[in-house]
Automatic annotation (TrEMBL):
Record InterPro entries: At2g35280_TPR_dom (IPR057136), At5g50450/At1g67340-like (IPR044508), F-box-like_dom_sf (IPR036047), TPR-like_helical_dom_sf (IPR011990), Znf_MYND (IPR002893)
Protein name as annotated: MYND-type domain-containing protein
Keyword line: Metal-binding, Zinc, Zinc-finger
GO MF annotation: an example: zinc ion binding
Region (Disordered): 1-45
Amino acid sequence: MRTRNGGAYPKPRSDNISSHNQRTKRQHAFGLGSSQRQDPPRKRLRPAERPEFFEWLHDDLVLSILSKLAASASSTSDLINVLLTCKRFNGLGMNPLVLLKASRKSMAIRAKNWSESAHRFLKLCADAGNLEACYTLGMIRFYCLGNRGSGASLMARAAMASHPPALYSLAVIQFNGSGGSKSDKDLRAGAALCARAALLGHVDALRELGHCLQDGYGVRRSVPDGRRFLLHANARELAAALSHPLFLPLLGSSPGSACPLLSDFGCALPPPDPHPANRFLIEWFSSRRVEPDGLRLCSHVGCGRPETRRHEFRRCSVCGLVNYCSRACQALDWKLAHKAQCVPMDRWINE
Ligand SMILES: [Zn+2]
Ligand SMILES: [Zn+2]
């Protein structure tokens, strides 16, 4: 095996010791005692002169370690800090084999930290075939940077590899005709993409498909099937909440009271964590208001999608004050907040 410098690995220390012993034995055999011939006194090496064991590690081994680290990174800084450690980590850390494995959390770049280098990092990960990077960069380009073509094609690349959030996002784009005109809506394509994401267990897609089936929107109307998909979405939502660290304290805080999950479809559950791409959109548009153009944001707090043309999103038919990119966002926001806030429009007009 060779080191990255192309040299051979040094022999183990035990070999050196045994050869030294053999040499000493040979010296005794030929009458060369310690009085006649002495080895020079062993010099204590200074730190700078000691052999660099890290340099002896094979590149494949370092790549394997860095790949595991990238896959388990809990933030972008986890990965970037390692790359900044030394020149070798910097070179090997940007290897496509490492970037391919980078975790979803390592793509969670904050909107306030967005820069050319952050864009380049996501692009390198996407080029390496990392589906989370394809989806995240696709969402950022499509909604934040206004680069609809490349954003949609990046999401399509992730969707073709069965990435559920990418399939669902493309479904929302098709349902709304986002990036085009009202006539660009393709309800059947939206429902088909949604069904694919729902089959992969994406909760928002299950909820969206359930409402589409109940309303006959893009698919043939079937109320029982729609109900089944909504129940499935709630079951998955409950399963996700059970693994949430905040869930057990929530149950323990109200001994003797009814389980909050027994309320309508688990409305007392903690809200699901938004995907890093959604969190980026939320932060991006909270600092750059889009209302002056007459474009509005989805009113669901965990979404962050903006309209790409005026009156693209559906409004609450009761109050007319909130807007949603999808039925899934509307249903979720109804449970989380809007149920308590919605007031019929004619009532506040009369008051
Ligand atoms: Zn939304
Ligand atoms: Zn309302």
